[in-house]
Specification:
Layout lengths: L3 E4 L16 E7 L12 E2 L8 E7 H9 L6 E2 L8 E7 L6 H16 L2 E16 L7 E2 L2 H12 L9 E3 L5 E3 L9 E7 L2 E11 L1 H12 L3 E3 L7 E9 L21 H9 L1 E17 L8
Parallel strand pairs: 5-15, 7-13
Antiparallel strand pairs: 1-7, 2-6, 3-4, 4-6, 7-15, 8-14, 9-10, 11-12, 12-14
Helix pairs in contact: 1-2
């Protein structure tokens, strides 16, 4: 049974002491079929290699989570927020911080999409990520390798992505000699199933919990107690809607495939336990699908 508490929210951009805007911001709705395969994910902004420039394609859901520092599962709004894409080109003032960038996104949502929100605390299903009975199967990351990888990443200039092929196990793979210095997720469709391989370097269990929540469509709490950073690979199959649940509602994986819960247990020595918990939600009361003209 769903129970919730309503807390009115009258603050949008004013939640921060000093409201700021992008110096220039262009927002255009796009049709993916018109892109002819040339999909450029949103990049740039404070903390990136292009701190004063943000450009690329993204969804309204991403903008909302960026603006309020939330996960997808902590936002309740119309389904099109996940599937309708917008082309963004924005200029950020030099020296702006990530916190200031959040305020810029809040203001953009208010001015261009006329968004209105409130917060509720709801009791919802979620998963706890815990250590399995036989202990974790994780390799602790080498701090020296992490430092070298960060240095290499900082020096990147237009590096080409490694070629993705299909391995003997039917899952996506990259060449063993490919220079991979950051985590990446590979995926391909196999019939009606999505075959996913996560190649993770120097990652925390919090990162893994967040990654799993993307596919389960539920929040995942890290309760492993593991505080280090680890290198690991996780390969699994997700159902037609990329949701793999623990209560039998998802389609079974194709023959030879591994469901996400089973893969987590067999490959990482961890376990997903279903539970319920109180989650503070950002509820979208109003938002316009067509943004105000630039």
């Amino acid at each position: 049974m769903l129970r919730f508490w309503v807390v009115p929210v009258v603050l949008l951009a004013s939640e921060c002491a000093a409201a700021q805007d992008f110096e220039v911001a262009s927002v255009k709705a796009v049709q993916l079929e018109d892109l002819k395969g040339h999909f450029k994910e949103l990049e740039g902004g404070p903390g990136s290699k292009t701190p004063t420039r943000i450009a690329g394609l993204t969804t309204l859901m991403w903008m909302v989570t960026q603006a309020y520092g939330l996960k997808d599962q902590e936002v309740s709004g119309p389904s099109w927020m996940q599937t309708t894409y917008f082309e963004i080109a924005a200029t950020v003032a030099p020296g702006a911080t990530k916190e200031q960038e959040k305020v810029m996104w809040q203001n953009l949502l208010k001015e261009r999409f006329h968004i209105q929100v409130h917060r509720e605390t709801r009791e919802l299903p979620l998963y706890a990520l815990v250590v399995g009975k036989n202990g974790p199967k994780l390799k602790e990351a080498d701090p020296a390798e992490e430092a070298a990888d960060q240095e290499m990443a900082a020096g990147e200039v237009n590096q080409l992505s490694p070629k993705v092929t299909v391995g003997a196990d039917g899952f996506p793979q990259i060449s063993p000699d490919a220079k991979m210095h950051r985590s990446t997720t590979l995926s391909l469709m196999s019939g009606e199933f999505l075959r996913v391989k996560m190649l993770c370097r120097h990652e925390t269990m919090g990162y893994l919990a967040d990654a799993i929540s993307y596919f389960t469509k539920r929040l995942v709490e890290d309760q492993t107690g593991l505080k280090g950073k680890y290198d690991f690979t996780l390969a699994f199959e997700a159902g037609p809607e990329t949701a793999t649940t623990l209560d039998g509602q998802a389609s079974a994986p194709a023959e030879g495939g591994a469901s996400l819960p089973k893969a987590v247990q067999d490959q990482l020595g961890l376990k997903l336990e279903a539970k319920k918990g109180d989650i503070e939600m950002l509820v979208i009361d109003r938002v316009e699908k067509v943004p105000t003209e630039n």
